[in-house]
Write a sequence for this structure.
């Protein structure tokens, strides 16, 4: 009689403890950490239409996602106005620093408008980031 009670109880506990399938795991988002992404285009509104315009490639701007999701610039310094989480292809990834973060000296004078979530669209070697009210930026993997 006890066995009949324990089997359904075990099944209920096993299904109740399943992980959140909508959360993005760090290793699935960043398969090889410290991959550089080069900014190539910015979305602009021209005559009421949204178009992509090429950015200045003489002064390349890079973004790096560290293994724990911390966003770094091309010099390996943390982004002054980083979000708390990323919405990657409609799946949430919470940024949880696992190591010390180094900021550039000019971050002390930067005022950051609150933007807790960045929307990231990843498709192969191309990535588009939308940061709240800023225009969308297109990057390619380096």
């Amino acid at each position: 009689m006890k066995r009949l009670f324990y089997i359904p109880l075990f099944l209920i506990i096993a299904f109740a403890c399943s992980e959140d399938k909508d959360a993005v795991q760090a290793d699935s988002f960043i398969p090889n950490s410290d991959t550089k992404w080069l900014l190539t285009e910015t979305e602009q509104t021209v005559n009421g239409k949204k178009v992509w315009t090429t950015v200045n490639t003489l002064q390349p701007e890079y973004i790096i996602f560290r293994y724990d999701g911390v966003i770094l610039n091309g010099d390996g310094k943390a982004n002054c106005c980083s979000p708390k989480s990323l919405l990657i292809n409609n799946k949430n990834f919470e940024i949880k620093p696992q190591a010390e973060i180094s900021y550039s000296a000019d971050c002390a004078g930067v005022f950051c408008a609150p933007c807790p979530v960045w929307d990231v669209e990843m498709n192969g070697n191309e990535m588009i980031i939308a940061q709240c009210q800023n225009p969308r930026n297109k990057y390619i993997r380096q």
Q: What stands out?
A: The longest helix spans residues 2-16. The chain has a mean pLDDT of 82. Residues 21-141 form a domain with the Lipocalin fold (CATH 2.40.128).
